[in-house]
Amino acid sequence: MKKIAVLLLILLLTGLTGGCWSRRELTEVAIVLGTGVDWMEDGRIRLTVQIARPGAFTAGSEAGARGREPASWVVSAEGRTIQEAERYLAMKVPREIYWGHCIILVLGEEMARKGTGMITNFFQRDRQPRENIWVMVTRGEAKDFLETYSSLEKTSAQAAGFLERMKTGYSVQLWKLAEMLASKGIQPAVTAVEVKEAGITPEPDREKKSPPQKQVGLAGVAVFKEDKLIGWLDPYETRGLLWLKGEAMKGVIIVPSPGEPDKAVSIRIRRGSTKILPEYDGEYLRFMVRIRVEGDMVEQQSREDLAKPEKIKTLESEMADELKKRATAALEKAQNEYGVDIFGFGDAFHRKYKKEWRDLKDRWDEEFSRAEVNIAVEAQIREIGLLTKRAGVPEE
Amino acid sequence: MIFLLIVSFIGIILLEVPGLVKKKMWRELVAFSVYLAIGMALSIPQVLGIKVPNPSKAIEALFKPLAELMK
Amino acid sequence: MLEQGKIDSRQAILLIISLVLPTAILTVPAITVKHAAQDAWISIIVATMAGLLIARLVTDLSLRFPGKTLFEYAEEILGRVPGKVVGFLYIWWFLHANALIMDEYASFLCSAHMPDTPVIVFFILGIAVAACAVRNGLEVLSRFNQLFLPLFLGLLLVVFILATKDMKVTRLLPVFDKGAIAILKGAATPASWLGEIVIFTMIIPFLNKPKEAYRVAALATLFTSFYLLVSILVAIMIFGPNVTGHWIFPTYNAVRVVSIANFLERMESIAVAVWMFGGFAKVGVFYYAAVLGSAQWLGLKDYRPLVAPVGVILVALAALCENIVELLDFLATAWPPYALSVFEVGMPLVLLIVALARGKGGEGT
Question: What is the ipTM of this complex?
């Protein structure tokens, strides 16, 4: 009797433990590498996805570089929401759409102007897309961006993802964007990207030289007020933004050579740090920004001997000036042109003056625009490379 | 669904009752039956699609004044 | 004696950690952060104080009646009928709490990992596993727990250490931003979780060294609080207080964000797999308490016949939960007063006072 009972229960359980419930093989899923969202005239959104073609990712296809199979497939569909668009997309994509490997989320310019919050929501709420998707705004349409070819990487989504990961410019992941959107003490700044002519692929036959290809590239920063795009920073101002946010720490500063101002010297940044110190007396709002930077001299155009302590001192002060100029350029644009605090000065203020913050937080951007900001840069040069003087200069 | 449920109830009864009868544990048998009856009363209507009141709701109502403080 | 097994102090500590921690790091961080923002860690410290007091209260009470569980000495203290009423309420609470625990787990798995699997499958499988453990007694439950809990705790710590790369201490500033009331509100939920230690009254009689009960309770509470504190700090230092409060399961999201050199990432599957074991242990302890309590309440010679019917009741109760919003709302607002005022502080305190007044039970050690 007992045995029968046990058998019955076991039978019942086996029905439930039959392995993976929602099993999907690789050949049944369409892996999304990049997502683009555009705003359409009629108030709907266009979802564009770049789907990986797994066959093109195997090692074999690398061999014949010329006859390379395209590694991705780009499709779009429209809808009121991302999910609706995805359902229309499913009518064209013969596999289950899988978001777990999405690297980038590109917003078209118009979409960004209408608001990003309603787009990013899905990518945070759904369990498949990850928090560390790179978010970017493209000048023009996101569809064009995803349809771009990449010469070096397999797909343009990967190319854009690697560009962001290199931190050569300002880059932001979804969870950092969420924090910026949720805080009143900082307005979001998102990477700006664009499609531009970038290099050519050499052909064996010079006569058949291919025209320059359009490829994806970084183009500064998109400035937001709340979740709406209001303007841009160019790459130069972007460097300033990075310094004010304390995030740069990579890159090169060009300064004039002390003895020959028409010739330039390059200093590669090694490390740096930024401190924002707010001061507030109930009326007058002031920020002290202290930037500390260390760099190595890596290039010299002038003929003079720079390997002397006093020359290095001059270079250091020029480096500090140049950095201050960059930071000021970004700051002025944010304060005067756009009137938004994209640097997180408000958060810094909140940390120090929690009571005053309660009064100021709802009109923070105006307060920020009026605030006086003093930038003090302390620069240091550590190494000068393997040369003392410029090589090949005869002794005088 | 209801079939599976009844099969599992029969399974549970077959598993426990013969042993209890053999050992003459009548008190245990009664307790077993009462508990299983409660379980059936809670589960069978749910499977049949009849709405069963959620006790959490009653507790929520009972502790409403205190719960307001937590908002 | 219904339970012949004995467990040592180490097993008891681990069992109490399992009793609280698995769901505490799941749902508590978001609720606490919503109230206290970046001061949530202070809330946890406040809750720890409360937890230690509850642990002390519960142990004091139990040690006056060596070898007896809550259900037995409640009758001795209050008399037959009031004692039975108290016992009945506790049986109900163990069942209800357990149903909520299963709901938390099921909605977590459903929304984060297995969207196509009906929740009832999680309930039935979870209860089936826990039922096996409970049928075999406290000793087996403790050993199962002893085997998997260190894995759970170790892995969690490793993940937290890996996440340090993305943390910023400045996100914890300014301190005392929302004020004392917000901090206390934030403390209520973790305190009600730590107060689940009241189940220790069902375990103390089976300790092989009851004298160490104080140490066991205190160490377990401190250990649990430590993990809760770390998981809240990790979430706030990664996401900041605003976004942490927006997530439902911030600790899970924190695990997802971990990415070391684009190589060591997507670790949440491992974390969830181990988390599941913790869930089984937690469900198992509550299950055990309900079954043993029922048997004692009814004066049975064996608790095992009740295991299966109680399992049915648990699955049915858990299935009553309509959606995750109801569940979260209940946990955030009704649960703390419900659990704390009646079951975790109120009744044990009344029992202890009456016992002292009537001179029942021996002097606590």
Answer: 0.92
